[in-house]
Amino acid sequence: MLITDSEATISSLVITNDLSEVPRMSLWLQQALESAGATHEQVFRFDLCANEAVTNIISYAFKNPGPHEIQLHLSRCDNQTRLTIVDDGFPFNPLEKAPHREPISLEDAQIGGLGIDLIRHFVDDCSYERQSDKNVLKLTNTFIDA
């Protein structure tokens, strides 16, 4: 069972589309997850996925220059924790990207393109929807130790 409308918000943060904001986001996420009782490994997994998603949003989501807000909401229901990331970039569902295929040889290998696979690997559930001209990416993990 995934988190429903009964989930409780633990913490929220708004950052701008500047890569210098990523460390601030990581610190916020670490503090919020630790205060909610997450283990070091759980914090690491969520932070890794958040860093990948937010870095991609900052680097690729915005057609026009200038500041844009990226909203992050951390919520919890029973033993499930969800990070919801909202941005006003162009519509992009990262989950539609086909999984990475292992190259036949080193010469066939390409740099990059593994971030979405990394997210799929380290979260129990991820979903995307477009709401009110905004991308909404939800990353959910079940924390057995909760």
Mean pLDDT: 85
**Beta-strand segment tally:** 5
Give the overall shape.
globular
Helix content: 25-40%
The number of helical segments is 3
Strand order of the largest sheet: 1-2-3-5-4
Secondary-structure blueprint:
Elements: E1 8-16, H1 22-35, H2 40-60, E2 69-77, E3 80-87, H3 115-122, E4 125-131, E5 134-142
Antiparallel strand pairs: 1-2, 2-3, 3-5, 4-5
Helix pairs in contact: 1-2, 2-3
Question: Which key features would you list for this structure?
Answer:
146 residues, 5 strands, five-stranded antiparallel beta sheet
Brief digest:
This protein is α+β, with helices and mostly antiparallel strands. Helices cover 29% and strands 29% of the residues.
Structure description:
The chain is α+β, with helices and mostly antiparallel strands. It is built from three helices and five strands. The chain has a five-stranded antiparallel sheet, covered by helices on one side. A hairpin with a 2-residue loop joins β4 (125-131) and β5 (134-142). The mean pLDDT is 85.
